[in-house]
Amino acid sequence: MRAADDSGRRQTIEAALSVAAEEVAAHGWDGLQMQTVAARVGVSRQTLYNAFTNKHGLAQALVLRLTEQFLAGVEDALTRADDIVGQWRAAVLYTLKTAAADPLLKAVLTAESRDELLPLLTSDAGPVINVARQRLAGAILTARPDVDPATARHAAETATRLAISHIVLPLHPNEEAAALIATIVDRYIGTPTALGLTTRPSPAGRSGA
User: Fold this and answer.
1) Cα distance between the two ends of the chain
2) Closest CA to 203 of 137, 153, 142, 145
3) Interval 134-161: pLDDT, tens
4) Which Gene3D superfamilies match (predicted)?
5) Which domains does the chain have, with CATH numbers?
6) Are the C-beta atoms of residues 85 and 163 closer than 8 Å to each other?
């Protein structure tokens, strides 16, 4: 019975997030009403508040879901080139172009909503960075199993923070920013000793092998 309840709750949350994303796209963040979301999903407003606590909690969940969607595209982009720089240039460029067209991110960055939402990508961006660091470090280790996991996490977090910074305050064309971030990732995992980090020894190089 509990498994069924958990499944139903997850379905309600997913439905609410999908409806909320549609409402934001149509009316902006300020036009999003919890009552409207609840009515469209077919639950009470209290059920919605139980799931997200408040509108800000809904915003956090929306941004995290968007992050997961972005990461799926990033992981796909990382397969489109044979070299590290090419892979990460494609991945970052995908992220920046997709972010520029996304209605939720537009709401986050607009003047009318930025005081409430912008911290989700700046001072309160910890959950987004943690999810991205874990997923992207895994992608690095898949491509380069010789890299130390700590180095992979450093590279992934640096790439994430730089990409978010460019999304929030773009100072260069997307292509230039993507090339810069890709080069930094390559230097992290290509010359780790220069950064005070170490690579994991290959099986052939371990003593007793």
Assistant:
1) 52
2) 145
3) 999 999 999 889 999 999 999 999 999 9
4) Tetracycline Repressor, domain 2
5) 8-53 (1.10.10.60), 63-190 (1.10.357)
6) no
